[in-house]
Amino acid sequence: MARREIAPEVFLAGLPVFKALDAATLARLAAATTRLTLKRGETLFRKGDPASGMYVVVYGEIKLIASTPARGRRLAGIVGPGQSLGEPVMFLERPALVDAQAAGDALLLHLPKQAVFDEIERNPKFARRMIAGLSQRIESLVRELDRQALGSGRERFIAYLLRHGRGNPGPFVVRLPVAKAELASQLNLTAEHFSRLLHELAQAGLLSIEARQITVPDRARLEGAAHRR
Predict the structure, then answer these.
(1) pTM of the complete model beyond 0.90
(2) 78 closest CA partner among 175, 167, 1
(3) Cα(48)–Cα(95) distance, rounded to whole angstroms?
(4) What pLDDT does residue 1 have?
């Protein structure tokens, strides 16, 4: 079924960084906005590309892929509907630090950096919201570093499932947004170690796996298994 088209100003108005802005501000930002449609696997930008502005995901998911000589390519994060990317390097006016690639079909809105800078100069409320959004991004990165410091791969993976289970007290389902090998790299695990973890947890009856869908029958049991060897 075809997705219903949403006017840029209507979509922007529902996002935290743009919420409660007046109609004139939203109209100016929407007028500068460009729609970008990506197919699965298409690249939004590459590491080293100049920062042209910020992006907001309407639907789909964008994978952020970091690469270093020591560790090779690894999944650094996923940006989903209603989230944005590109602001940090846009404000620093530096090249992109990661590759950004569509995990599936996606639609994004691109706001050119000059339009964002002009609105910040014009509108203190918008400037404060941009600062708040970047502050939340920093807080999320600190939390992610804390999670990466967990003692074992088992703990990191179980923490990932519990986090994406949205607090459901009973059974819940988590659909992996990327291939298992990519998720393993995000959790700082080898593909082999991750596969072994899945097998062990499934054998213990703590989860079941069907393609990218993981079903957890008992949240409390999974929580209790986090520190078990």
Answers:
(1) no
(2) 175
(3) 5
(4) 47
